[in-house]
Amino acid sequence: MSRFSTVTRSRWFPLFCLLAVLATTAVAAGLPGVAPAAAAAGGGLPWWGWPLLLFAVSFLLGVVAVPAGVGGGVLFVPIVSGFFPFHLDFVRGTGLLVALAGSLSASPGLLRCGLADLRLAMPAALAVSMASIGGALVGLALPAAVVQTSLGVTILGIVALLLIFRKSDYPTVEAQGRLAAALRFQGAYHEESSGAVVTWRAHRASRGLLLFLGIGFLAGLFGLGAGWANVPVLNLVMGAPLKLAVGTSMFLLSASGAPAAWVYIHQGAVLPLLAVPSMLGMMLGSQVGGRVLKKVRPAAIRHVVWIMLLLAGMRALLKGLGLWP
User: Fold this and answer.
1) Domain assignments of the chain as residue spans, ordered by start
2) What is the pLDDT of residue 144?
3) 316 CB contacts (<8 Å, ≥6 apart)?
């Protein structure tokens, strides 16, 4: 067990998260212009209330993101950009770090129980990481209104994708293909809900890797992470079992989030006052969500995610078009 995993599983981790949020707000209070700007943007809410509210919201998003298989970024960016008084560039940069934090928090436990597979994840991670850098550079070069409108359209498209395509718990793969066989896309894991050992294998490796290039670009462009698209590709296109696709998707979020996040950090589009409470909340929530994934069917939580994304997508679209301030 890694040192990072040991820390996040400790009973003292929630207290550490809360203390870190309070310390961040205290440090930020001494920075010139931070408190007045936050107070002006926040209306009646005190400036120090925003980090605490971000922590609570990120925790709840982390709990539902892992079982739903969508990643924390795809929920965080449209919800925070639509309902919080922060500039979109800062929200997108924080969204990538949030997705990265949730992935790093949940991945060790998923790898240990076989619900995430390294052989399946690493080729996809290479494609996603390269494309995400290009997406981040393009996103920072575009006007905020264009990105906000495009974000709303993308989120509504994600909702349609989740509603139209029905996932299969255990897809049938008759023939792997040469590339998938060479990459050894196969294995087994223990299904805790039934007590059985599930053997699996994946196919259509070349088609899946091409799709991951597009997923990485969108992840960097909007700061969404990529769980919303990773799961359908792994499950519907490549034939991985649904729970394995969800777990492997969480691991892939670190590959898409880390390279693009460095672009946002280099451009100064990451504020600790936003990033620290959001990351800690997502890490803590993902720990809870990873345990929930073992016990329940992902479909039980996905309906809640659809409603959240629909409202956030409409809000982002109307805000980008100037119809909703």
Assistant:
1) 13-26+49-320
2) 80
3) 78, 81, 82, 148, 149, 151, 152, 155
Q: How many CB atoms lie within 10 A of CB 121?
A: 23
Residue 225: its pLDDT value, please?
65
Q: The pTM is what?
A: 0.70
Provide the angle, in degrees to the nearest 10, between the axes of the packed helices 73-83 and 299-320: 40
Determine the Cα–Cα distance for residues 269 and 55; give it in Å rounded to an integer: 19
Regions of the chain with pLDDT less than 50? 1-10, 12-42
Q: From CA 131, how far away is CA 288, in angstroms rounded?
A: 30
> Which two three-digit tokens encode residue 211?
């799709």
Closest CA to 74 of 187, 13, 161: 161
CA distance 20 to 324: 34
Contact 286, 102 (CB under 8 A): yes
Structure tokens at 229: 């698209």
Could you tell me the two tokens for 59? 């925790």
Q: At 37, list the tokens.
A: 């700007």
Residue with tokens 């993101």: 65
The pLDDT of residue 194 is: 66
Question: Hey, which bits of 113-201 come out as E strands?
Answer: 186-191, 196-201
Structural contact between residues 155 and 312, judged by C-beta atoms closer than 8 angstroms: yes
- Give whole-number Cα distances, 163 to 27, 109, 201, 257, 317, in Å: 44, 29, 26, 25, 19
* 193: exposed, middle or buried (Cβ count in 10 Å: 0-12, 13-18, 19+): exposed
